[in-house]
Amino acid sequence: MPTVQVTDLKDGDFLLDVREDDEWQAGHAEGALHIPISEFVARYGELTEAAPQDGRVHVICRSGGRSAQVTMYLVQQGIDAVNVDGGMQHWQTAGRPVVTDEGKPGFVL
C-alpha cells in the first residue's frame, strides 16, 4: 500500500477526502476534493476530471482505513494514488489547518 505521512504533503498537493458528509462539514483540509467513500464508485468521474493528469492523488479519511481502500482501488485503475497515514487525525495533530465550508476553523469528527 503506497503511503505518505501528513508531514510529507506540500501545499498544492492534490488531496481527496473520502469521509462522509457530516465529517466533511465539521472540518476538512482547505482545497481538498470531497467524494464520500459511500458514493465513490458512482462519482469516480469527478475525481478523474479534477485530479492532475500526471500528478499524484493523496487520499485521506479520518484515520486511514477508508482511504486505504480507495487508494487500492485507484492504484488498480492505474492512478498514482497514495494513502495519507493517520488521516485527518494526524493532519490536525500536525497543526495543519482544518476548516469548514465557510472557511472558519473546523475540527475532525
TrEMBL record:
One Pfam family per UniProt: Rhodanese
Highest taxon of the lineage: Bacteria
CDD domains (alphabetical): RHOD
Domain Rhodanese: 9-100
PANTHER family: FAD-DEPENDENT OXIDOREDUCTASE, PYRIDINE NUCLEOTIDE-DISULPHIDE OXIDOREDUCTASE
Name of the featured protein: Rhodanese-like domain-containing protein
